[in-house]
C-alpha cells in the first residue's frame, strides 16, 4: 500500500528532524507515483514540498498527494516555524486530492490543514494508517509537551567508555568522519552547549567548519563566570554569537567584562549548590529565547545533571576503536550514577551505523 511506502520514507528523518515530526509524502498523477519526499532535517523543507520538487524535477505535474501527517497550515514565523505552509504549496501546485495519515496531534493546529484544503475544493481523506504515523512520531508527541528545547546529548568515547585521557586531554578520540558528522549535527541545531570545564580544558570553537551550514549559538554553562577572556569562545564572541549562563551572584564587573567582548550574559537562578545552575530554569529560559533544538557536547558532569533533570531527549555517541583505561579518565555521564540496573535509563529506537572506523550509536529517551 502506498501509505506504507510514505511511512518508510518518513522514517528516513529519524534522529534528524526532532522536535519536528517525521513525515513522508508521495506525489501522484492518478495512481502513478511521480515524486517522493520526506522531512529530512530540522528546519528543512517538509515532505510534501520535497515530493513536489522531486516530481517537478522529472517534469511531472501531480494532482494527488499521499502524506503521513496532516499538511501544515501555520505560516512561517508562527511559533518559531521555519518554513512556509504546506497547504498553500499544495494549492499552488494544483493538487486536487490528498490522502492524510494522522491528523496533527498539536492542539493548536489539529484539522486546520484539512479544513483549509477542503475549503479550497481539495478532496481529503484522512486517517489512513493514522496509528502507524503516530507510532513513529513518539518523539514529536513528547516534544509537544516540552517547555524547553529538544536536547541532544552527544559524546565521543573510546571502546572502554572514556571521553578523555586521565589528564583531561581529549583530542582526538573519534576520527575525521565522526567529527564531520558532529558538524552536520551542530549545523542543524539552534545552539551547541558545553559545561565550564570542557570550555576550560578543551578551549573549543564550537563552530561549523567541516561542512557548509548554519552556525548555531554557542553556550557555556559557567555558574561563577570563570571563563577566560583569552578563551576561543570569548575572543570570537563578536563574530559568532556566544551566550554564557552564569549564576545570580556573579560579580557585575566580571559580567560587564564578558559583555565588552560581545558575550551575551544570562543570569540563571542557582541550584542548592551555588556552583550549579538550576538546569530546569536554564532550559526554560533557552526556550523562551527561541531555541527549539540544542546539542550538548558534554562534559560528563553537565550531561549527568541534565539527565537527572529529565532534560535529555536524544543521545548520539561515537565509539572509537581505542582503549585508555584507568579509573581517573572521565566517562560520558558523571554524577552519582544509578545504584541498581533496574534504574538504568532505557534508550528507545536504538540504532547504529559505521562512521569510517568508529561506530555511531543513537537513540531516544521518551
Ligand atoms: N569526548 C567527548 O565527547 C568530550 C566532550 C566534552 C568534554 N570532554 C572531556 O570531558 C572533560 C570535562 O568534563 P567534566 O565533566 O569535567 O566537565 P563539564 O561537564 O564540561 O563541566 C563541569 C562543570 O560544570 C559543573 N556543573 C555540573 N552541573 C552543573 C549545573 N547544573 N550548572 C552549572 N554547572 C554545572 C561542574 O560542577 P561539579 O564539578 O560540581 O560537578 C563542573 O564545574 C574534559 O576532559 C573534556 O576534554 C570530552
Proportion of residues in β-strands: 15-25%
- CATH architecture tag of the largest domain: 3-Layer(aba) Sandwich
Low-confidence stretches: none
Q: State the name of the first-level CATH class of the largest domain.
A: Alpha Beta
* Corresponding CATH superfamily of the largest domain: Dihydrofolate Reductase, subunit A
Overall form:
globular
- What structural class do the secondary elements suggest? alpha/beta
- The tally of domains stands at 2
**Helix proportion range:** 25-40%
- What value does the average pLDDT take? 96
Tally of extended strands?
14
Radius of gyration: 22 Å
Give a list of the ligands. NADP nicotinamide-adenine-dinucleotide phosphate
Distinct helical segment count: 12
The CATH topology of the largest domain is given as Dihydrofolate Reductase, subunit A
The first-to-last residue Cα distance is: 30 Å
Q: Strand order, biggest sheet? A: 10-9-8-7-11-6-12-14-13
N-to-C SSE string, H for helix and E for strand? HEEHEHEHEHHEHEHEHEHEHEHEEE
Largest sheet properties: 9 strands, mixed
Describe what is shown at a glance.
By secondary structure, this protein is α/β, with parallel strands linked by helices.
Amino acid at each position: 500500500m502506498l501509505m506504507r511506502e510514505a511511512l518508510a520514507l518518513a522514517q528516513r528523518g529519524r534522529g534528524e528532524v526532532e522536535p519536528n515530526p517525521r513525515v513522508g509524502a508521495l506525489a501522484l498523477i492518478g495512481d502513478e507515483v511521480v515524486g517522493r519526499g520526506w522531512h529530512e532535517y530540522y528546519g528543512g523543507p517538509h515532505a510534501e514540498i520535497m515530493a513536489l520538487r522531486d516530481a517537478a524535477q522529472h517534469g511531472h505535474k501531480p494532482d494527488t498527494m499521499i502524506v503521513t501527517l496532516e499538511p501544515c497550515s501555520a505560516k512561517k514565523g508562527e511559533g518559531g516555524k521555519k518554513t512556509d505552509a504546506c497547504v498553500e504549496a499544495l494549492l499552488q501546485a494544483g493538487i486536487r486530492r490528498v490522502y492524510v495519515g494522522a491528523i496533527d496531534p498539536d492542539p493548536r493546529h489539529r484539522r486546520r490543514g484539512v479544513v483549509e484544503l477542503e475549503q479550497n475544493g481539495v478532496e481529503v481523506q484522512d486517517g489512513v494508517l493514522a496509528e502507524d504515523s503516530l507510532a513513529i512520531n513518539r518523539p514529536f508527541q513528547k516534544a509537544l509537551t516540552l517547555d524547553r528545547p529538544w536536547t541532544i546529548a552527544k559524546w565521543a568515547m573510546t571502546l572502554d567508555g572514556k571521553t578523555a585521557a586521565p589528564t583531561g586531554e581529549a583530542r582526538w578520540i573519534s576520527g575525521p568522519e565522526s567529527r564531520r558528522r558532529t558538524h552536520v549535527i551542530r549545523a542543524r541545531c539552534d545552539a551547541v552547549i558545553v559545561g565550564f570545564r570542557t570550555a576550560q580544558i578543551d578551549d573549543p570553537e564550537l563552530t561549523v567548519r567541516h561542512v557548509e551550514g548554519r552556525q548555531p549559538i554557542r553556550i557555556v554553562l559557567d555558574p561563577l563566570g570563570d571563563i577566560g577572556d583569552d578563551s576561543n569562545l570569548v575572543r570570537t564572541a563578536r563574530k559568532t554569537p556566544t551566550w554564557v549562563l552564569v549564576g545570580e551572584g556573579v560579580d557585575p564587573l566580571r559580567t560587564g567584562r564578558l559583555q565588552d567582548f560581545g558575550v551575551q550574559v544570562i543570569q540563571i537562578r542557582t541550584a542548592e549548590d551555588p556552583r550549579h545552575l538550576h538546569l530546569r530554569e536554564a532550559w526554560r529560559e533557552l526556550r523562551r529565547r527561541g531555541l527549539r533544538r540544542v546539542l550538548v557536547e558534554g562534559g560528563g558532569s553537565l550531561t549527568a545533571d541534565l539527565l537527572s533533570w529529565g532534560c535529555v531527549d536524544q543521545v548520539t555517541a561515537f565509539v572509537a576503536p581505542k582503549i585508555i583505561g584507568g579509573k581517573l579518565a572521565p566517562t560520558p555521564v558523571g554524577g552519582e550514577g544509578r545504584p541498581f540496573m533496574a534504574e538504568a535509563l532505557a534508550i528507545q529506537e536504538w540504532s547504529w551505523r559505521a562512521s569510517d572506523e568508529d561506530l555511531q550509536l543513537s537513540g531516544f529517551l521518551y
